[in-house]
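Quick note —
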Amino acid sequence: MCFYLVYEEQVINVEVLDSDEPTVLDVYLNPSDDFYAYQVTLCYFHDPYNYPNNFQNNPTEGVSALGPPDGTCASLGVGGYMVLDMGEEGIIVDHENTTDFKIFEGDATQDGYTVYVSSNWSGPWVSLGLVTGTAEFDLANFSVESAQFIKIVDDNNGNPTEQNPGVDIDAVQHLIPIVVNNPPNRPYINGTKDGKVGIEYEYTFVSTDPEEDDLYYWIEWGDNNTEQWLGPFASGQELKLNHSWVEAGEYIIKVKAKDTFDEESSWGIFKVTMPRNKIVTSSIFYQFLKRYPFLIKLLSLIKL
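Predicted structure written out below.
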């Protein structure tokens, strides 16, 4: 099986600003908006010769119809046919006011052939008519909403003993494919890393979405407190929240984003430290504080 996706090479230079902190590079690939036939489901090349001279004038193969047009064709022979599978990602969908797929017919002559489409490899088939040469098709003209399989049948006209007889199929292209939704990029967190117990600090959360979809944020503060899917926010729009911790220690803030199609990002993380405040711990004063616990919180707000 071959599924052809085309990506453009990119070179990205990354500057590491702080050797003590991890450097994260989020990368996603956008495939081109061209899908081609996924695999040959079946084919029948008509052969006018008998064994042992089979196909002496037609050395082509069915797989030559896969992928982008390259001048290498699958010649069906006079009266031959083939069924091509566009794959689940490349299902041809009717798009308003535009053609939906294109069949590239190679060779110097424009041969005739009939085209059928179906959602199942064995049919039932809907005929899109007889055409010659390279042709484009609009499913709306035949009241078809979508199709995964394309059947191409030679018009049974021509010399079966000529070199590469019958229609010559170079490629089948889905002109406007189903849009593949990508997850949001890993969110970033910015705010105070070292603070004091009981003090509220502001933290900023932000992510971007490859398709500019609106985003929701799930935030875990590391102290069993959670913000569940806050939003929606525009791609790239900052979310600012205040939070405080009631006990000294180290905490990991975690955040992930999801878009309007429920695609979730990887986790963004941010470590904060709430050190234990210095307080007088003589036995008399400590016993006094135990009698009035609200003073402990009050003292925690004062940096000694």
